[in-house]
Specification:
Blueprint lengths: L1 H4 L5 E4 L13 E4 L2 H9 L2 H16 L20
Antiparallel strand pairs: 1-2
């Protein structure tokens, strides 16, 4: 737990893996923590979506990462 609390870079996990609770859904869950989370909260959705897609396309190649059907994220420090 100690190492996880010091994480400063975003991490992504697929919720579509065979044994996950949403198998074959195509859902990707991205976690952003600490000061980076405040940067993301201040951005508009389109900017954040394009940043996430750029990282995924760099890792998996552009032809394997289509535009998402939907994109959303909560702004925990801004929502009551």
């Amino acid at each position: 737990m100690e190492a996880a609390s010091k994480q400063t870079t975003p991490s992504a996990r697929s919720l579509a893996r065979r044994r996950s609770f949403l198998a074959r859904s195509g859902i990707v869950f991205v976690t952003v923590v600490q000061s980076q989370s405040y940067v993301v909260e201040d951005q508009d959705d389109e900017t954040t979506k394009q940043e996430v897609l750029a990282v995924l396309r760099d890792v998996f190649s552009a032809e394997n990462v289509p535009e998402p059907i939907a994109f959303m994220y909560p702004r925990w420090s801004l929502e009551p």
